[in-house]
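REQUEST ID: PR-0412
SUBMITTED BY: lab tech R.K.
PRIORITY: routine
TASK: structure prediction, single protein chain
INPUT:
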Amino acid sequence: MMQQMHKGFIVAAALVLSALIVACGGGGGGGGSLAGGGIGGTGITRGSVTGFGSVFVNGVEFETDGASRTVDDVITTSDGTDDDTVLGIGMVVTITGTVNADGVTGTAESIEYDNDVEGPVAAAPVEDLDGVTKTFDIFNITVVVDRNSTVFEKTDFDGLAKNDLLAVSGYFDADGLLATRVEKRPGDSNVEIKGEVSGFNGTDEFDLGSIRIKFDGMTVFEDLPGDTVKNGQYVEVGGVLETATSIAASRIEREDEGFGDNVDEISLEGIVTKYNGISDFRVAGQPVDASKATFEPGLLSTSIADGDQVEVEGSIVNGILKAEEVEQRGGDVRVSATVVSKNSTAGMVTLRVVSGQPSLTVTTNTQTQIEDKRDEQKPFGISNINAGDYLNIEGYVDGNGNIVAAQIEREEPDSIELRGPADVPPTFGGNFAGTVSIFGIAILTNNNTEFEDDSEASIDGDTFFGDVKDGDLIEFENELPLDEYADEVEFED
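STATUS: complete
OUTPUT:
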């Protein structure tokens, strides 16, 4: 799975949130116990860009004046104010630099970014039944985009189509690439692909997966002695698409796999794969031993599994990342609702989900990605959010019962949605009448409410209310025009 969701997701429902100090730019709030914040000292930070005003990555606000930036092999120098002209929200970057003792500020020496894949969409994207994700292939890499969490540039979720030339950044899991950013490129045939060399004919052709690569005397080689390749090398190829399965290479570059055998300090965000216990799993392909780590939230130490998105902090020793901290990213909680109020200083927004019910307060930290999809205001942060704005929020519940936003997007008003752990009671009912409660917010159901199980198959109200248990991950939706009844209620896997 691209994102692991857990039925039986049990958390405290406290909604009184501790105050945080808001950082500048779009990175959200900071400070307090929720802020966490990257490595201490000099080291490597790899994760998605969540804001500007500096550059925010993995909860650290990096000052960038004088830093070297390598973006798709183009090298520039930051003046500390122009990073948003060459970088974008959602790009997964690698920063080498110094993190201050506070753990949430630092200075970047270098910033590197490269697309994970750039090429044409092979076939029409396939949308899931809820209209939240789409799946498609680029060069046999399966890409999953999320309507609410993927950043789209020069395209949007609904506009994706076959043959679109897309540059994608994101996190790989066992099934493919979970896109954090998708940018549509002009309709030429320039493409980019990474992979392990195989099938080299000894002269001028080799394979990257099912794609045949051809090169000649005009091809530029980087970090490849003799201007050639060998089977087993991991390379990046840029060139022109000749056919659906053939690229004429203009550039072939040797790519480093991993971060080396020994790194003093590293902060790494990615998807958990090959999970064999907390002492043996991988994040972004990097082997991790978290047997001596602290986890946030604490329940993550027993629930962590393949598909979870996490940030791991520690040091690499003999090729193994010895984790000191493992923190949840992304999350199972979803809120789509209208803002009642905000507290920029505390880094909090309060939303009205159901009329007449308690409001829901969500907090931000320096790792919260905040984006304006309605007006495309840039930079955009919590200080730019106003009462009456409609927000899509993805997040999680921390160990203290606080709802922490991993991502906030301002959108045009749409249906009201809430996903989280069921409160049983008061969740109770049947086919013709019932009550569904999440985070202490209740909505009524009636004979027009549609119920679904965790495979999105239709069930009746009697079955839903008979099966639901306290802490089960569920979701309700109230479509426009709003009324007092849920239009859809479903279990989430």
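NOTES: The longest helix spans residues 461-467.
REVIEWED BY: pending
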